[in-house]
Structure formats: C-alpha cells, structure tokens
C-alpha cells in the first residue's frame, strides 16, 4: 500500500502529495503559498525521502513551541520572518534566506507583515510540537 510505503496514517488521502511529486511534476512554491487562504496552515507540496516540503502563508505571531526530535527548515519566499528564541535572541529572515531551528529549541515565528514561506520538515514533525493550540494543524490537515 502506498500509505504504508510513505509511512503515513492508514486511510490518508495522498492525492495532493502524488499530484505534486510525480516524476514530471513541478511546483511553483510562491504560487502555491500565495494561493493559500488561511494563515499558519502549512500544506504539503512534495515529499523527499523522509521529509515533507510544505508552503505556508504567515501573518502575526504563532505559538511558542519546540519539536523534540526534529530540526525544522524555514525558507522565506516573500516578505520577512522573525524567529524569536528564549532570552531575547532572534533571527530575521528575508526573502531567499533559510534558517534551521534545531530540535528541542523553543521558537516563536513572527511575521509583522504577510510572509510566504516553504518548510522542510521530517514527516513525523508535529505543527506545534506536543503542544495543542488553537492554531495547530494535524499532518492530515496539512496533506488535505
Ligand atoms: Ni516549529
């Protein structure tokens, strides 16, 4: 079964992933991110081995959270993203820049203006780590 091969939950719709990752398929990350209707709601556009490539549209502040076992790559496509860490540390990402948040480290993404990003995350990565927040999206929602 494809679902088992991909290591995803049984019964999950994989149409989005397969449509976007056929051997001859291409994905325009900016267009995909621009087309999103909801802020802080990542969508999977491809899978590379055990990583998902996702796009998201951000505005405002997300929840403080960490991912115990996974690093998380942010790639800013448009706009500016600030990722805050504890003790007042922060990184500012402009379009074209990447930043990797190390596993286990509390982080707080903030987009003062609308910002388009791509993410590379291990397929097991939970949106807000083990924390449930009103903004949290499940993997299933990210694949829908
Ligand atoms: Ni995170």
Write up what this structure looks like.
With 144 residues, this protein is of the alpha+beta class. The chain has one domain (2-143): Jelly Rolls (Sandwich). Helices cover 16% and strands 40% of the residues. It has helices at 2-6, 15-21, 29-34, 139-143; strands at residues 43-48, 51-61, 72-78, 80-84, 90-94, 98-101, 108-122, 127-130. Strands 1, 2, 3, 4, 5, 6 and 7 form a 7-stranded antiparallel beta sheet that branches. The radius of gyration is 15 Å and the shape is globular. The model is unreliable at 1-13 (pLDDT under 50). Bound molecules: nickel (II) ion.
Q: Please report the first level of CATH classification, the CATH class.
A: Mainly Beta
Gyration radius from CA atoms, angstroms: 15 Å
Percent strand: 35-45%
Count of strand segments: 8
How would you describe this structure in keywords?
single chain, 144 residues, alpha+beta, Jelly Rolls, 7-stranded antiparallel beta sheet, 4 helices, 40% strand, globular, disordered N terminus, binds nickel (II) ion
Strand-helix topology:
Layout: H1 2-6, H2 15-21, H3 29-34, E1 43-48, E2 51-61, E3 72-78, E4 80-84, E5 90-94, E6 98-101, E7 108-122, E8 127-130, H4 139-143
The protein binds nickel (II) ion (NI).
Residues 65, 67, 72, 101, 107 line the site of nickel (II) ion.
Question: How would you summarize this macromolecular structure in one to three sentences?
Answer:
The protein has a single domain, classed as Jelly Rolls (Sandwich), CATH 2.60.120.10. Helices cover 16% and strands 40% of the residues. The protein has helices spanning 2-6, 15-21, 29-34, 139-143, and strands at 43-48, 51-61, 72-78, 80-84, 90-94, 98-101, 108-122, 127-130.
């Amino acid at each position: 079964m494809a679902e088992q091969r991909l290591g995803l939950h049984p019964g999950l719709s994989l149409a989005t992933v397969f449509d976007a990752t056929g051997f001859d398929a291409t994905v325009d990350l900016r267009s995909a991110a621009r087309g999103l209707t909801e802020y802080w709601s990542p969508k999977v556009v491809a899978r590379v081995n055990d990583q998902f490539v996702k796009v998201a549209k951000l505005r405002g502040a997300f929840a403080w959270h960490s991912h115990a076992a996974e690093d998380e790559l942010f790639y800013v496509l448009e706009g500016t993203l600030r990722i805050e860490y504890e003790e007042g540390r922060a990184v500012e990402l402009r379009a074209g820049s990447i930043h990797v948040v190390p596993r286990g480290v509390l982080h707080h993404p903030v987009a003062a203006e609308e910002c388009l990003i791509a993410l590379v995350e291990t397929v097991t990565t939970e949106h807000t780590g083990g924390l449930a927040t009103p903004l949290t999206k499940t993997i299933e929602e990210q694949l829908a």
